Amino acid sequence: MAFADQKLDKLTLVEGALALNVAIDPTMSLHWVSTELEHLAQETDHLLAGETNAEFRLDGLLRLFYKEWKFKGDFEQDFSSDNVFIEKVLRRRKGIPVSLGTLFLYLAHRLDLPLQPVGYPTQMILKVNGLDKEARYINPFDGEYLSQRILRGWLVGKEGPNAEVKIEYLKASNNATLIGRWLAVVKSALLREENYSMALRCSELALTFNPDDPYEIRDRGYILQQLKCDWIAAEDYEYFIAQCPDDPSAELLKLQVKALMAETPIFH
Which residue numbers delimit the Protein SirB1 N-terminal domain (predicted)? Predict the structure, then answer.
């Protein structure tokens, strides 16, 4: 089934992530990933499922995932595509919050732990509901609990000194929202690596959900230009200019269109 036809609200987050990954990189070994996930889940069940205290199960899973299995955030290559494809994260035991958090959430649900993903403005975090305490939040990057001071500090770094943590920022997010953000991260990583063929797949996937998004069409135009599909790129740029004439990039793109249309078309 094509990724665009997947009912993301019917899938678990890890299933949606795998569907996204395969749609971008069809060479991914889905069989190996499924086998590895089941292996981790069985080990989790063996070690922790018999613990009747949910708080202890959660502490045990945090210790198992981050200490014994040594999953961790990739501090050195935060923007690498290695950190956004589930297969590579499983093999390297390194990732970013969304990929690590998705794996941790998969295992937590196997243990009936009340965790939910939250699309916080700066990154994905995990919300722990209940367990006879107020809601708490885990940073999937390192498995540490997040204080309100840290959450606000992240926002200040993103939005400025007057930023405040709003209630809606800490609400659980649906899978479609998280997968959409994940797709944007994958595309950004691939563009940094100049992997324009896969980046084009990302852009096309995004446009299946919002076909008229002028900014995504502009981005697709840029990717097509790098792939030497100049006339098609010019059409995307012209669409963006018509839809967003007051955008600061519109004037520059007009010059790009003029130059591209003057080139001899290259057919692929």
Answer: 32-183
